[in-house]
Amino acid sequence: MNLKSYFPWLLARIFVGSIFIAAGFFKLSDPIENFRGMITAYGIIPYVLVTPISLTLPWIELFAGIFLIVGYFVRWSAVVLGLLSFSFVILIGVARLAGTLPESCGCFGEHIPMSPYQMLVLDSLSTLLAIRLFQIKNHRLCLA
Amino acid sequence: MMNKSKSLKTTLIGAVLILIAVAAVVGFRYAKQNQKGEASAQLASAGKAKGPDSAPVRIVGFSDFQCPACAHAGPIVDALMAKYPGKIQYVYKHFPLRMHVWAPVAHQAAECASVQGLFWDYYKKLYDNQAAWSALPDPMVTLVEYAKQVGANMESFSACMVSSEVAAGIMAEKKEGEDLQVRSTPTFFINGKMFAGQVELQMAGEVWIRSLLGLPAETSKSDALPLTDKVVQQA
Predict the structure, then answer these.
(1) Gap from B159 CA to chain A (nearest CA, Å)
(2) What is the pLDDT of residues A31-55, one digit of tens each?
(3) Cβ pair A4, A65 in contact under 8 A
(4) For A61-71, how does the pLDDT look when each residue is reduced to its tens digit (9 = 90+)?
(5) In sequence order, what are the residues at sequence separation of 6 or more whose Cβ sits closer than 8 angstroms to the Cβ of residue A54?
(6) Which residues of A fall within a CB distance of 8 Å from B29?
(7) Cys-Cys crosslink for A61: which of A24, A78, A110, B235, Cβ 3.0 to 4.6 Å?
(8) Chain B contact for A119 (CB, 8 A cutoff)
(9) Are residues B105 and B190 in the same domain?
Protein backbone atom coordinates (compact mmCIF):
# COMPACT_ATOMS: atom_id res chain seq x y z
CA MET A 1 0.00 0.00 0.00
CA ASN A 2 1.51 3.30 -1.04
CA LEU A 3 1.40 6.38 1.17
CA LYS A 4 -1.44 8.00 -0.77
CA SER A 5 -3.73 5.00 -0.55
CA TYR A 6 -2.71 4.50 3.11
CA PHE A 7 -3.70 8.08 4.03
CA PRO A 8 -7.34 7.24 5.06
CA TRP A 9 -6.00 4.58 7.42
CA LEU A 10 -3.55 7.04 8.91
CA LEU A 11 -6.54 9.27 9.61
CA ALA A 12 -8.32 6.25 11.15
CA ARG A 13 -5.32 5.66 13.42
CA ILE A 14 -5.35 9.31 14.50
CA PHE A 15 -9.13 9.26 15.02
CA VAL A 16 -9.27 6.09 17.13
CA GLY A 17 -6.02 6.88 18.95
CA SER A 18 -7.14 10.41 19.82
CA ILE A 19 -10.41 9.18 21.31
CA PHE A 20 -8.56 6.82 23.62
CA ILE A 21 -5.78 9.26 24.49
CA ALA A 22 -8.43 11.80 25.53
CA ALA A 23 -10.41 9.16 27.42
CA GLY A 24 -7.35 7.90 29.28
CA PHE A 25 -5.81 11.30 29.94
CA PHE A 26 -8.98 12.93 31.27
CA LYS A 27 -9.63 10.02 33.61
CA LEU A 28 -6.04 10.07 34.85
CA SER A 29 -6.01 13.82 35.34
CA ASP A 30 -8.97 13.61 37.74
CA PRO A 31 -9.06 11.90 41.13
CA ILE A 32 -9.53 8.17 40.65
CA GLU A 33 -12.69 8.39 42.78
CA ASN A 34 -14.51 10.06 39.88
CA PHE A 35 -13.84 7.11 37.58
CA ARG A 36 -14.76 4.64 40.34
CA GLY A 37 -18.06 6.49 40.65
CA MET A 38 -18.71 6.20 36.93
CA ILE A 39 -17.93 2.47 36.88
CA THR A 40 -20.32 1.80 39.75
CA ALA A 41 -22.97 4.01 38.11
CA TYR A 42 -23.41 1.39 35.36
CA GLY A 43 -24.58 -0.98 38.08
CA ILE A 44 -23.56 -4.18 36.32
CA ILE A 45 -19.83 -4.47 36.99
CA PRO A 46 -19.04 -6.57 40.08
CA TYR A 47 -17.79 -4.28 42.86
CA VAL A 48 -14.67 -6.42 43.32
CA LEU A 49 -13.54 -5.37 39.82
CA VAL A 50 -13.98 -1.62 40.39
CA THR A 51 -10.51 -1.08 41.85
CA PRO A 52 -8.52 -3.07 39.25
CA ILE A 53 -10.46 -1.52 36.38
CA SER A 54 -10.11 2.03 37.70
CA LEU A 55 -6.38 1.58 38.22
CA THR A 56 -5.51 -0.01 34.88
CA LEU A 57 -8.03 0.95 32.22
CA PRO A 58 -7.09 4.66 31.83
CA TRP A 59 -3.39 3.77 31.40
CA ILE A 60 -4.20 1.10 28.82
CA GLU A 61 -6.36 3.60 26.92
CA LEU A 62 -3.62 6.23 27.01
CA PHE A 63 -0.71 3.97 26.01
CA ALA A 64 -2.56 2.06 23.30
CA GLY A 65 -3.92 5.34 21.89
CA ILE A 66 -0.42 6.83 21.66
CA PHE A 67 1.02 3.63 20.21
CA LEU A 68 -1.65 3.52 17.51
CA ILE A 69 -1.02 7.09 16.39
CA VAL A 70 2.78 6.98 16.40
CA GLY A 71 2.80 3.53 14.84
CA TYR A 72 4.24 1.41 17.60
CA PHE A 73 2.90 -2.14 17.22
CA VAL A 74 -0.04 -0.72 15.28
CA ARG A 75 -1.86 -3.99 14.74
CA TRP A 76 -1.69 -5.03 18.40
CA SER A 77 -2.65 -1.57 19.59
CA ALA A 78 -5.63 -1.80 17.25
CA VAL A 79 -6.54 -5.16 18.80
CA VAL A 80 -6.43 -3.71 22.32
CA LEU A 81 -8.46 -0.62 21.40
CA GLY A 82 -10.89 -2.69 19.32
CA LEU A 83 -11.51 -5.01 22.26
CA LEU A 84 -11.99 -2.04 24.59
CA SER A 85 -14.40 -0.35 22.18
CA PHE A 86 -16.36 -3.55 21.75
CA SER A 87 -16.50 -4.16 25.50
CA PHE A 88 -17.90 -0.62 25.96
CA VAL A 89 -20.56 -1.36 23.34
CA ILE A 90 -21.51 -4.48 25.30
CA LEU A 91 -21.43 -2.57 28.61
CA ILE A 92 -23.77 0.16 27.34
CA GLY A 93 -26.09 -2.45 25.79
CA VAL A 94 -26.30 -4.57 28.94
CA ALA A 95 -26.76 -1.51 31.19
CA ARG A 96 -29.56 -0.34 28.87
CA LEU A 97 -31.30 -3.71 29.16
CA ALA A 98 -30.78 -3.73 32.94
CA GLY A 99 -32.23 -0.21 33.18
CA THR A 100 -29.13 1.14 34.91
CA LEU A 101 -27.71 3.28 32.10
CA PRO A 102 -26.25 6.51 33.52
CA GLU A 103 -27.19 9.89 32.06
CA SER A 104 -23.56 10.59 31.19
CA CYS A 105 -21.20 7.89 29.96
CA GLY A 106 -18.21 9.14 31.95
CA CYS A 107 -15.92 8.06 29.12
CA PHE A 108 -13.95 11.30 29.17
CA GLY A 109 -14.12 11.82 32.91
CA GLU A 110 -16.93 14.37 32.45
CA HIS A 111 -14.63 16.85 30.66
CA ILE A 112 -16.50 16.11 27.44
CA PRO A 113 -20.04 15.21 28.52
CA MET A 114 -21.45 12.56 26.20
CA SER A 115 -24.54 10.45 26.58
CA PRO A 116 -24.10 6.67 26.52
CA TYR A 117 -25.96 6.61 23.19
CA GLN A 118 -23.51 9.06 21.59
CA MET A 119 -20.71 6.92 22.98
CA LEU A 120 -22.33 3.78 21.61
CA VAL A 121 -22.03 5.23 18.10
CA LEU A 122 -18.43 6.31 18.67
CA ASP A 123 -17.43 2.94 20.16
CA SER A 124 -19.12 1.01 17.35
CA LEU A 125 -17.21 3.08 14.79
CA SER A 126 -13.95 2.62 16.72
CA THR A 127 -14.49 -1.14 16.83
CA LEU A 128 -14.96 -1.33 13.07
CA LEU A 129 -11.95 0.87 12.35
CA ALA A 130 -9.79 -1.10 14.79
CA ILE A 131 -10.74 -4.36 13.07
CA ARG A 132 -9.73 -2.90 9.70
CA LEU A 133 -6.48 -1.54 11.13
CA PHE A 134 -5.67 -5.00 12.45
CA GLN A 135 -6.36 -6.53 9.03
CA ILE A 136 -3.81 -4.27 7.35
CA LYS A 137 -0.50 -6.11 7.44
CA ASN A 138 1.88 -3.39 6.25
CA HIS A 139 1.24 -0.12 7.99
CA ARG A 140 3.04 3.04 6.89
CA LEU A 141 4.56 5.81 9.01
CA CYS A 142 5.41 3.55 11.93
CA LEU A 143 8.03 3.76 14.67
CA ALA A 144 8.18 0.02 15.16
CA MET B 1 23.28 -9.11 16.14
CA MET B 2 21.06 -7.07 13.80
CA ASN B 3 17.88 -8.53 15.37
CA LYS B 4 19.16 -7.83 18.89
CA SER B 5 19.88 -4.22 18.01
CA LYS B 6 16.44 -3.82 16.41
CA SER B 7 14.78 -5.35 19.44
CA LEU B 8 16.68 -2.97 21.75
CA LYS B 9 15.65 -0.01 19.62
CA THR B 10 12.00 -1.11 19.71
CA THR B 11 12.10 -1.51 23.48
CA LEU B 12 13.70 1.91 23.87
CA ILE B 13 11.07 3.59 21.70
CA GLY B 14 8.33 1.98 23.80
CA ALA B 15 9.99 3.04 27.04
CA VAL B 16 10.37 6.64 25.85
CA LEU B 17 6.72 6.80 24.73
CA ILE B 18 5.52 5.46 28.07
CA LEU B 19 7.80 7.83 29.96
CA ILE B 20 6.51 10.86 28.06
CA ALA B 21 2.88 9.83 28.67
CA VAL B 22 3.46 9.22 32.39
CA ALA B 23 5.32 12.53 32.75
CA ALA B 24 2.45 14.40 31.05
CA VAL B 25 -0.14 12.82 33.36
CA VAL B 26 1.94 13.34 36.52
CA GLY B 27 2.70 16.97 35.57
CA PHE B 28 -0.95 17.74 34.86
CA ARG B 29 -2.10 16.09 38.08
CA TYR B 30 0.53 17.96 40.09
CA ALA B 31 -0.69 21.30 38.71
CA LYS B 32 -4.29 20.43 39.57
CA GLN B 33 -3.34 19.14 43.03
CA ASN B 34 -2.18 22.63 43.99
CA GLN B 35 -5.60 24.04 43.11
CA LYS B 36 -7.23 21.29 45.19
CA GLY B 37 -5.20 22.27 48.24
CA GLU B 38 -6.61 25.79 48.14
CA ALA B 39 -10.14 24.55 47.63
CA SER B 40 -10.05 22.09 50.53
CA ALA B 41 -9.74 24.91 53.03
CA GLN B 42 -12.93 26.54 51.75
CA LEU B 43 -14.93 23.37 52.27
CA ALA B 44 -15.11 24.00 56.01
CA SER B 45 -17.47 26.94 55.40
CA ALA B 46 -21.03 26.63 56.67
CA GLY B 47 -23.72 25.16 54.44
CA LYS B 48 -27.02 23.45 54.75
CA ALA B 49 -26.24 21.02 57.55
CA LYS B 50 -27.99 18.39 59.63
CA GLY B 51 -26.45 16.53 62.53
CA PRO B 52 -24.35 17.98 65.34
CA ASP B 53 -21.48 20.41 64.61
CA SER B 54 -19.38 18.37 67.04
CA ALA B 55 -19.83 15.14 65.05
CA PRO B 56 -16.50 13.42 64.35
CA VAL B 57 -17.60 12.57 60.80
CA ARG B 58 -18.59 15.31 58.37
CA ILE B 59 -20.10 14.35 55.03
CA VAL B 60 -20.18 17.15 52.49
CA GLY B 61 -22.37 16.18 49.53
CA PHE B 62 -22.41 18.00 46.19
CA SER B 63 -25.79 17.25 44.66
CA ASP B 64 -28.17 18.22 41.90
CA PHE B 65 -31.92 18.29 42.55
CA GLN B 66 -32.70 16.97 39.07
CA CYS B 67 -30.25 14.08 39.24
CA PRO B 68 -31.91 10.67 39.83
CA ALA B 69 -28.86 9.22 41.60
CA CYS B 70 -28.91 12.13 44.07
CA ALA B 71 -32.51 11.28 44.95
CA HIS B 72 -31.38 7.77 45.84
CA ALA B 73 -28.33 8.97 47.77
CA GLY B 74 -30.47 10.84 50.32
CA PRO B 75 -31.86 7.68 51.97
CA ILE B 76 -28.31 6.26 52.12
CA VAL B 77 -27.09 9.35 53.99
CA ASP B 78 -30.12 9.13 56.30
CA ALA B 79 -29.42 5.42 56.93
CA LEU B 80 -25.80 6.21 57.79
CA MET B 81 -26.88 8.98 60.18
CA ALA B 82 -29.38 6.64 61.83
CA LYS B 83 -26.81 3.87 62.11
CA TYR B 84 -24.20 6.11 63.71
CA PRO B 85 -26.37 8.51 65.77
CA GLY B 86 -24.69 11.76 66.78
CA LYS B 87 -21.51 10.79 64.93
CA ILE B 88 -22.25 12.27 61.51
CA GLN B 89 -22.98 15.75 60.25
CA TYR B 90 -24.24 16.05 56.67
CA VAL B 91 -23.72 19.26 54.71
CA TYR B 92 -25.54 19.78 51.43
CA LYS B 93 -23.81 21.73 48.65
CA HIS B 94 -25.42 22.89 45.43
CA PHE B 95 -24.03 21.41 42.22
CA PRO B 96 -26.58 22.03 39.45
CA LEU B 97 -25.43 20.21 36.32
CA ARG B 98 -25.57 21.87 32.91
CA MET B 99 -27.40 18.88 31.43
CA HIS B 100 -30.38 19.44 33.76
CA VAL B 101 -32.42 22.31 32.42
CA TRP B 102 -34.53 22.88 35.59
CA ALA B 103 -31.72 22.38 38.09
CA PRO B 104 -30.83 26.10 38.46
CA VAL B 105 -34.38 27.14 39.32
CA ALA B 106 -34.86 24.15 41.66
CA HIS B 107 -31.62 24.99 43.49
CA GLN B 108 -32.67 28.63 43.72
CA ALA B 109 -36.01 27.56 45.23
CA ALA B 110 -34.25 25.29 47.73
CA GLU B 111 -31.88 28.08 48.69
CA CYS B 112 -34.84 30.43 49.15
CA ALA B 113 -36.46 27.85 51.42
CA SER B 114 -33.14 27.53 53.24
CA VAL B 115 -33.13 31.28 53.99
CA GLN B 116 -36.37 30.66 55.91
CA GLY B 117 -34.94 27.61 57.72
CA LEU B 118 -36.95 25.19 55.58
CA PHE B 119 -34.16 23.68 53.51
CA TRP B 120 -34.59 20.03 54.55
CA ASP B 121 -38.38 20.12 54.14
CA TYR B 122 -37.99 21.58 50.67
CA TYR B 123 -35.13 19.17 49.87
CA LYS B 124 -37.44 16.26 50.67
CA LYS B 125 -40.22 17.73 48.51
CA LEU B 126 -37.87 18.12 45.54
CA TYR B 127 -36.35 14.66 45.73
CA ASP B 128 -39.60 12.84 46.59
CA ASN B 129 -41.32 14.43 43.59
CA GLN B 130 -38.33 14.69 41.27
CA ALA B 131 -39.84 12.64 38.43
CA ALA B 132 -42.96 14.83 38.44
CA TRP B 133 -41.55 18.39 38.46
CA SER B 134 -38.47 17.69 36.36
CA ALA B 135 -40.62 16.37 33.50
CA LEU B 136 -42.80 19.51 33.37
CA PRO B 137 -42.40 21.99 30.50
CA ASP B 138 -42.04 24.69 33.19
CA PRO B 139 -41.94 23.59 36.82
CA MET B 140 -42.05 27.11 38.32
CA VAL B 141 -45.68 26.91 39.48
CA THR B 142 -45.02 23.51 41.06
CA LEU B 143 -41.89 24.75 42.85
CA VAL B 144 -43.87 27.67 44.27
CA GLU B 145 -46.59 25.25 45.35
CA TYR B 146 -44.01 23.12 47.18
CA ALA B 147 -42.83 26.24 48.99
CA LYS B 148 -46.40 26.88 50.16
CA GLN B 149 -46.71 23.27 51.28
CA VAL B 150 -43.60 23.47 53.48
CA GLY B 151 -44.94 26.67 55.04
CA ALA B 152 -42.68 29.29 53.45
CA ASN B 153 -43.46 32.99 53.63
CA MET B 154 -44.43 33.45 50.01
CA GLU B 155 -43.63 37.12 49.78
CA SER B 156 -40.03 36.56 50.85
CA PHE B 157 -39.83 33.40 48.76
CA SER B 158 -40.97 35.19 45.59
CA ALA B 159 -38.51 38.03 46.13
CA CYS B 160 -35.71 35.55 46.75
CA MET B 161 -36.53 33.61 43.57
CA VAL B 162 -35.48 36.57 41.42
CA SER B 163 -32.41 37.42 43.48
CA SER B 164 -29.22 37.33 41.45
CA GLU B 165 -27.22 37.19 44.69
CA VAL B 166 -28.82 33.87 45.61
CA ALA B 167 -28.09 32.52 42.13
CA ALA B 168 -24.48 33.69 42.45
CA GLY B 169 -24.20 31.95 45.84
CA ILE B 170 -25.37 28.68 44.29
CA MET B 171 -22.83 28.97 41.50
CA ALA B 172 -20.13 29.78 44.07
CA GLU B 173 -20.90 26.49 45.82
CA LYS B 174 -20.71 24.71 42.49
CA LYS B 175 -17.35 26.36 41.80
CA GLU B 176 -16.18 25.14 45.19
CA GLY B 177 -17.02 21.60 44.06
CA GLU B 178 -15.35 22.09 40.69
CA ASP B 179 -12.19 23.26 42.45
CA LEU B 180 -12.32 20.02 44.41
CA GLN B 181 -12.58 18.21 41.06
CA VAL B 182 -16.19 17.18 41.46
CA ARG B 183 -17.28 16.03 38.02
CA SER B 184 -20.57 14.25 38.65
CA THR B 185 -23.36 14.14 41.17
CA PRO B 186 -23.70 13.04 43.84
CA THR B 187 -20.13 13.38 45.05
CA PHE B 188 -19.35 13.21 48.75
CA PHE B 189 -16.40 14.24 50.87
CA ILE B 190 -16.22 12.36 54.15
CA ASN B 191 -13.75 14.22 56.35
CA GLY B 192 -12.11 15.36 53.13
CA LYS B 193 -11.96 11.99 51.35
CA MET B 194 -13.84 11.87 48.05
CA PHE B 195 -16.51 9.30 47.15
CA ALA B 196 -18.29 9.71 43.80
CA GLY B 197 -21.74 8.21 43.46
CA GLN B 198 -24.19 6.67 45.85
CA VAL B 199 -22.76 3.17 45.45
CA GLU B 200 -19.32 4.35 46.54
CA LEU B 201 -20.89 6.17 49.49
CA GLN B 202 -22.64 2.99 50.51
CA MET B 203 -19.73 0.62 49.94
CA ALA B 204 -16.39 2.38 50.43
CA GLY B 205 -17.85 5.38 52.27
CA GLU B 206 -19.17 3.38 55.18
CA VAL B 207 -15.89 1.49 55.50
CA TRP B 208 -14.14 4.89 55.74
CA ILE B 209 -16.66 6.16 58.31
CA ARG B 210 -16.10 3.10 60.49
CA SER B 211 -12.35 3.58 60.34
CA LEU B 212 -12.77 7.27 61.31
CA LEU B 213 -14.90 6.21 64.27
CA GLY B 214 -12.35 3.58 65.26
CA LEU B 215 -14.85 0.78 64.68
CA PRO B 216 -13.83 -2.61 63.30
CA ALA B 217 -14.74 -3.48 59.73
CA GLU B 218 -18.10 -5.19 59.40
CA THR B 219 -17.81 -8.91 58.83
CA SER B 220 -21.49 -9.71 58.75
CA LYS B 221 -23.68 -8.45 55.94
CA SER B 222 -26.60 -8.32 58.40
CA ASP B 223 -25.13 -5.10 59.82
CA ALA B 224 -24.80 -3.57 56.40
CA LEU B 225 -26.95 -0.66 55.28
CA PRO B 226 -30.14 -1.64 53.48
CA LEU B 227 -29.26 -1.78 49.80
CA THR B 228 -31.20 0.35 47.40
CA ASP B 229 -33.43 -1.71 45.13
CA LYS B 230 -31.07 -1.19 42.23
CA VAL B 231 -28.24 1.02 41.25
CA VAL B 232 -29.71 4.06 39.58
CA GLN B 233 -28.50 6.57 37.10
CA GLN B 234 -25.61 8.72 38.11
CA ALA B 235 -25.45 12.05 36.41
Answers:
(1) 33
(2) 999 999 999 998 899 999 999 999 9
(3) no
(4) 999 999 999 99
(5) A32, A35, A36, A39
(6) 28-29
(7) A24
(8) no
(9) yes
